[in-house]
Amino acid sequence: MVQRKQKKNVKLRGSKTHGYGSMKKHRGAGHRGGRGNAGSGKRADSKKPSIWKRGNRNPEQIGFVNYQPLERTTINVGHLDSIAARMVREGKAKEASGMIVIDLSSMDTNKLLGAGKVTHKLHVTVELAVPLAKEKIEKAGGKIEATIVDRETVKADREARAEEFRKKNSKAPPQATKA
After folding, report:
1. What CATH number should be reported for the domain holding residue 109?
2. CA dihedral over 54, 60, 66, 71, signed as positive or negative
3. Could you give the CA distance from residue 73 to residue 156 in angstroms, rounded to a whole number?
4. E strand or H helix at 129
5. How many domains would you assign to the chain?
6. Is 115 part of any domain?
C-alpha cells in the first residue's frame, strides 16, 4: 500500500534546522528578544507592553462600575398601538370613553418613543415621552400624561449640571469681577 503522508519528524531527517531557519533561531528565547515583556524598556518603542500605555494598570482597572445605573425601559408608539387591543383583552389596559387607557409606569416602562403609526385613540400615562410620540397620539385623538423630553432640553440640562459640578470642584480661586 502506498504511504500517503510521511510523518513530520521522518520528513525532516537530514535537515539541519528542522524548519527553523538558521541554527541560532531555535535556541531559548533569544530569537524573540526575551520571554514575554522582558527587556521591553531597553527596546525603544518597538516592544512597549500595552500596559504601559494605560499607566501601569490592567484592563480590569480602567473605568468604574456604576452600581446605580439609570435604566430606561422604552417602547415605541407604533408597537404600543399594535398591542393595545391585546392589552385590553388581557386586563393590562382599560377602555373608557372611547379610548384605551394604558398606564405604562405600572408595567415597568418609563419612556415612550415616537416610531410607528398610531391608529387607536390612546390615553397613555408614562414618566417620559418624546415630542413625536405626543404629537402622534394627539393626532389620533388620544391624550398623553408625561414629561416631554427632547434632545435639546436633555443636552442643556446635562451642560448645566456639568458646569455646576465644575464650579463646585474647581481648585482655582474665584475670579474677581469688575463692578
Report:
1. 3.100.10.10
2. positive
3. 23
4. strand 122-129
5. 1
6. yes
Largest CA distance in the chain: 106
141 conformational bin, left if phi > 0, alpha if psi -120 to 50, beta if neither: left
Q: Which residue range is the domain that position 95 belongs to? A: 74-152
Contact 77, 133 (CB under 8 A): yes
Q: 33 by DSSP, 3-state: which?
A: coil
Coil, helix or strand at residue 94: strand
All three cell numbers of 125 = 400615562
As given in the structure block, the three cell numbers for residue 33 are 528578544
Whether 125 and 147 have beta carbons less than 8 Å apart is answered as: no
Q: Is the pTM of this model over 0.70?
A: no
Helix, strand, coil abundance in the chain, percent, nearest 5: 35, 15, 45
d(CA 23, CA 25) in angstroms, rounded, equals: 6
Within-domain flag for 42: no
Q: What DSSP character marks residue 171?
A: -
32: left (phi over 0), alpha (psi -120 to 50) or beta: alpha
Write the pLDDT tens digit of every residue in 62-111.
Answer: 778 888 878 889 999 999 999 999 999 999 999 998 999 999 988 889 99
User: What is the Cα–Cα distance from 166 to 155, expressed in whole angstroms?
Assistant: 16
Q: Tell the burial category of 97 from Cβ atoms under 10 Å away from its Cβ (0-12, 13-18, 19+).
A: exposed
Residue 46 lies in a domain: no
By three-state DSSP, how is residue 36 classified? coil
